[in-house]
Write a structure and sequence with these properties.
alpha/beta, eight-stranded parallel beta barrel, 11 helices, binds phosphoenolpyruvate
Length: about 350
């Protein structure tokens, strides 16, 4: 429920109503705006109705939040949220590019790739220490040692680092090393993990599940916000459809839809979205054109020997081409590279 107070309502009214909301077992929200104060009450709709807040003399209107996701919805929070990963703002006018190898394979490979992506204009480094692999025999990451390497390389180059956490038991160690925690497509509805990451206090990069509807992605984000973590960046990474010519079908329809429904920023991952190196650049440009807030791109110093996702990883040269091609598209939609 969204409770809009009259312009003349004072802080005492807000305090009184917030107390009533929380005494009835609902979650109170306080959103002071430039012109008027807006309050929120989340929880059982029947309890909300019983409060009869609309009859309070200082209440202008009481409206239900129609979306099933509440904190994530633009109905409650009309303005764009800007999430900071280290010193990189995601959302707003800037267009953020996060890049790196699929996995931390060695200190040297991570450092070399990180140097290349930084020189080409990436503002954050992403590489996996814990890799979700379809086969149990695939390379599943170097774990804690990889976290240490990633942190060291990030600090050396002044790049914030993002990495995936797959298990709620690893949230602490990953949060100690990374500036943001990625929740991968396969874990988008791992509700135990979502709650644990929501409590971590770290920004989150939440990828859309490969078979998840947009509404399910937004409800997964709601878990994070409901735990008190508002620093959430969404990521469209392609969904599974009947089409098998490419690894996934990059659902760019999702971008304007997500921008309409939520205040949270959204990135596009054209690497997993296509699975094909040559298609990463055109889909990156399309992502910028359709309103994404940035990109997540896989780059490897030598994709031919990559331990995971080599076929979709750009060579450093390809990433430089992508960044050069991106600049005019980003400018054409009224934004600038962050
Ligand atoms: C990844 O980012 O390397 C990854 C495993 O992505 P996704 O969870 O989108 O498959
Ligand atoms: Mn990958």
């Amino acid at each position: 429920m969204i409770i809009v107070l009259k312009p003349e309502a004072g802080a005492d009214t807000a305090d009184e109503l917030l107390a009533r909301i929380s005494e009835s077992g609902l979650k109170p929200l306080h959103m002071p705006g430039a012109e008027r104060v807006v309050l929120g009450a989340l929880g059982d709709e029947r309890v909300l109705a019983g409060l009869q807040l609309e009859s309070h003399p200082m209440v202008e209107s009481v409206k239900p939040i129609l979306a099933p996701y509440k904190l994530v919805s633009r109905e409650l929070h009309p303005h764009d949220t800007v999430v900071r990963i280290g010193d990189l703002p995601i959302g707003g006018r800037g267009f953020a590019v996060i890049a790196g190898p699929c996995a931390v394979e060695s200190a040297e490979q991570t450092r070399n790739t990180a140097r290349e992506v930084k020189a080409a204009g990436a503002r954050a480094l992403r590489a996996g220490a814990y890799k979700p692999r379809t086969s149990p025999y695939g390379f599943s990451g170097h774990g804690p040692e990889a976290l240490r390497i990633l942190r060291e390389v990030g600090d050396e180059l002044g790049l914030p680092v993002v990495t995936e956490v797959m298990d709620a038991a690893d949230v602490d160690i990953v949060a100690q090393h990374a500036d943001a925690l990625q929740i991968g497509a396969r874990n988008m509805q791992n509700f135990t993990l979502l709650r644990a990451v929501g409590r971590s206090g770290k920004p989150v990069l939440l990828k859309r599940g490969m078979s998840a509807k947009i509404e399910e992605l937004l409800l997964a984000a709601e878990y994070l916000l409901a735990e008190g973590n508002g620093e959430v960046v969404l990521c469209e990474r392609g969904i599974r459809t009947f089409e098998t010519a490419t690894r996934n079908t990059l659902d760019l329809n999702a971008i304007p839809y997500i921008k309409r429904k939520t205040h949270l920023p959204v990135l596009v991952d054209p690497s997993h979205g296509t699975g094909v190196r040559d298609f990463v650049l055109p889909m990156a440009l399309a992502a910028a054109a359709c309103g994404a807030d940035g990109l997540l791109v896989e780059v490897h110093e030598n994709p031919a020997v990559a331990l995971s996702d080599g076929a979709q990883s750009l060579y450093p040269e390809g990433f430089r081409e992508l960044m050069a091609a991106l600049a005019p598209v980003v400018a054409a939609v009224g934004r600038e590279l962050a």
